Automatic annotation (TrEMBL):
Presence of keyword Transcription: yes
Keywords, alphabetical: DNA-binding, Transcription, Transcription regulation
Gene3D superfamilies from the UniProt entry: Winged helix-like DNA-binding domain superfamily/Winged helix DNA-binding domain (1.10.10.10)
Molecular-function GO terms, alphabetical: DNA binding
Pfam families found in the cross-reference section: HxlR
Residues of the HTH hxlR-type domain: 23-122
Protein name stated in the entry: Transcriptional regulator
Length: 127
């Protein structure tokens, strides 16, 4: 257990029983619940440095403004790095930061669980 989190907890309670320890999770989940955020993290994590157009192509019918906003938010949160090259035509690539890689590693078991859970939701229920 992370002792630094216990330092912020209510005295006499551990993070396992003190809901105030989970406040930081709210901000992360709020960002990740936005449209295409998790998908961007997973795509960039699987492909490595990727250009905006490649991300756009992978998503198909996503609006440019939504995708741009999501990329900016993920860069601002420190999950993605944006590198602009001084070339003609201009080239910009996105890649996961160390924090983004850690996030992707933690998302993977959740995504695997979601696939299994989705299969159960589609199965007929017994009455």
């Amino acid at each position: 257990m992370d002792e630094s989190r216990d330092a912020d907890a209510v005295p006499g309670r551990s993070c396992r029983t003190d809901p105030s320890c989970y406040c930081q999770l709210g901000g992360v989940l709020e960002l990740l619940s936005r449209k295409h955020a998790i998908q961007v993290i997973c795509l960039v994590g699987e492909t490595g440095p990727v250009r905006y157009g490649e991300i756009e192509d992978a998503f198909g019918a996503v609006s440019s403004s939504t995708l741009s906003a999501r990329l900016d938010e993920l860069v601002g949160a420190g999950y993605l790095a944006r590198e602009q090259y001084d070339e003609i035509p201009p080239r910009v690539e996105y890649d996961l930061t160390t924090t983004g890689e850690q996030l992707q590693q933690r998302l993977q078991p959740l995504l695997e669980w979601a696939v299994i859970h989705e299969e159960f939701e589609d199965a007929p229920t017994e009455t």
